[in-house]
Amino acid sequence: MGTSRADGHREPDDRLGGVLSATLITCHSILELNARHPEAQRALLDAQVMHRLVMKGFPGWVEDGARDARAQMGVLHTSNVDLKNQRLTVVVQSSVPPDWSHLGKNQLAAEPQIMKVDQSVAIGQRFRFHTVVNPARMSSRHLPRSEREKPQPERKRLSDTTAEHARQWFAERLQPLGEAAISERGVRRIGADADPTRLVVRILPKLSNLDKKPGMRVGRAQVRGELTITDPHVFVNTIVGGLGHAKAYGCGLILVKRID
């Protein structure tokens, strides 16, 4: 059987001429925080504060101030708040082990859980999945200009705000068996297929960065459903690297569970 690893190495199957399996290796942390704690409250109000809270769990792995520190360490996160019980749950994925000792006991509602993920992924396997994405699309418009100037298109990323648009955004990234990893429109696919009509989509509140970018709003959509693996190598790379934009702000992490 052909195999592939998360580091990008692939071993083709000479008989079938394709990559039939891959290995997903990563680390998951589950943080249960007291939503009444000031730091948790700040994180709920400001996406940049949440980003800093997550990144504090990985001291020393890269040089201080590195612009791509999150990507180098494979850090992705997603969060959910239970306002009734005042609990903020943050799930963090990383390619290096975290250190959550900086979180004080008054910040935590439970001890952090850290789990190593080492799983083989093969064509035809089925997974339940849950993800929060930024279903952004690019739009062009013409800036004001003098009569002598030619129109100069401005590229601006817009977040779709309806469940149907988010469903279409995700469906465009599905990869039917035998299809290329990049579509004719240049969209990167995820190495798995699904029935778009069976996806459960929910629009979430937009995130803000109140300190540095008061006008910033990050649109989010929660997508749940079942996937069938069609390209294990692409699928593993998608899980490790995340899906779409706004990854520093809690989008792009895909959580999966094998359907036996």
UniProtKB/TrEMBL annotation:
Q: What is this protein called?
A: Type I-E CRISPR-associated protein Cas6/Cse3/CasE
SMART domains of this UniProt entry?
A: CRISPR_assoc
Taken from the record, one Pfam family name reads: CRISPR_assoc
Region Disordered: what ranges?
134-162
**Which ranges are annotated Basic and acidic residues under compositional bias?**
144-162
InterPro entries in the record: CRISPR-assoc_prot_Cse3 (IPR010179)
Encoded by which gene? Answer: cas6e
The lineage is:
Bacteria, Bacillati, Actinomycetota, Actinomycetes, Mycobacteriales
